[in-house]
Structure formats: structure tokens, C-alpha cells
Write a structure and sequence with these properties.
The longest helix is centred in the C-terminal third of the chain and has 22 residues. It is built from four helices and six strands; from the N terminus they run E-H-E-E-H-E-H-E-E-H. By secondary structure, the protein is α/β, with parallel strands linked by helices. Bound molecules: flavin mononucleotide.
């Protein structure tokens, strides 16, 4: 059975809440999912999953250093993550505060690993974004995103 990792950093809980909402969407598609704090993820753990989704608060328009550190350490497995499904989500303090640039930054790293990314023509186009605490709109978007990631993982790795 294919398996997805949702790996996040969160100080005040907003990004964490989004991670669990996305996991709900994945589970509803009957795909296995692990939700882990970035501190609990070793670079070698990335090899075990068919899909990897990174989530971060927006810090000065980019991701938290903790997540960037994992990404930089993942160079040890350069070329070994090819063909896995990738995704990203972010929380920010403000509209226009850089949540989309954070998502794009994370997706760039996944693309450089040779991973497969899916956009969304209806919901948040690059990946779910929230302004501070996720509201009902964000919850719906995160669940749909989880389903979308699971759908692609099943297609490529089912
Ligand atoms: C160091 C730092 C930098 C931040 N930079 C931004 C920023 O550039 N734009 C923004 O909208 N919010 C910014 N914020 C706010 C956080 O992105 C926001 O509160 C987020 O929801 C926190 O997520 P968390 O609850 O998962 O920790 C910053 C917060 C901190 C602590």
C-alpha cells in the first residue's frame, strides 16, 4: 500500500492543524499517512514514502529554518527521491504575507529532487495556505488537497 509523509514545522499550532487536516483527506482516500514534526524526521526517512508533503509557517516570506535544514540534508539522497509525489502548504500572519512564496520555495526543492507535483485549478493553486489559525475554508482546502495527493500517489505508486 502506498504511503505518504506529512512533515511540518509549527510553533503556535496553525501549520500543525493544517497537517492533520491534509492527513484526514489522505486517509479518506484509503492511503496510509504519517504526520510528523520535522524534528522527528531523518533525511533517510524520506526514502520510505511514495509521497512527501512539507508544511511550514511563513518566516520572512520563506520556510522555517528547521525545514530548510532537512531539505539541505536530503542532498545525501539526491536522485533517490525521483518519481515520488511532492506537495507543500504554509501558514502566514497576513494576506500577501508570503504564504505562496513559502509554498513555491518548498515545491522548488521537491522538483529539484525530481518529484511529481500536482496543482489545483479550483482550490489554492499551489498548495493550501492559511492566514493564522485555519478556518473552515482552509479546512476544506486541506482535505481536498490530501485527497488530490492520495489520488496521484495511487496512480503512480498504487
Ligand atoms: C520569525 C517569524 C517571521 C514571520 N514572518 C512572517 C512573514 O514574513 N509574513 C507573514 O505573513 N507572517 C509572518 N510570520 C507569522 C507566521 O507565519 C504565522 O503566525 C504562522 O501562522 C505561524 O504558524 P505556526 O502556528 O504553525 O507556527 C512570522 C512569524 C515569525 C515568528
Amino acid at each position: 500500500m502506498p504511503k505518504i509523509l506529512i512533515c511540518y514545522y509549527s510553533r503556535s499550532g496553525h501549520t500543525k492543524a493544517m497537517a492533520y487536516m491534509i492527513a484526514d483527506g489522505v486517509r479518506s482516500s484509503e492511503v496510509e499517512v504519517d504526520v510528523k514534526k520535522v524534528a522527528d524526521v531523518k533525511p533517510s526517512d524520506l526514502l520510505k514514502y511514495d509521497g512527501i508533503v512539507f508544511g511550514s509557517p511563513t518566516y520572512y516570506g520563506t520556510c522555517a529554518a528547521e525545514l530548510k535544514s532537512l531539505i539541505d540534508k536530503s542532498v545525501k539522497y539526491h536522485e533517490e527521491l525521483q518519481g515520488k509525489v511532492g506537495g507543500a502548504f504554509a501558514s502566514s500572519g497576513n494576506v500577501g504575507g508570503g504564504n505562496e512564496t513559502t509554498v513555491i520555495q518548498l515545491l522548488q526543492a521537491l522538483l529539484i529532487h525530481g518529484m511529481v507535483i500536482v496543482g489545483d485549478p479550483v482550490g489554492d493553486h499551489y498548495g493550501p495556505v492559511s492566514i493564522e489559525k485555519p478556518n473552515k475554508r482552509v479546512e476544506k482546502d486541506c482535505k481536498e488537497y490530501g485527497k488530490r495527493i492520495a489520488w496521484l500517489v495511487k496512480k503512480l505508486h498504487g
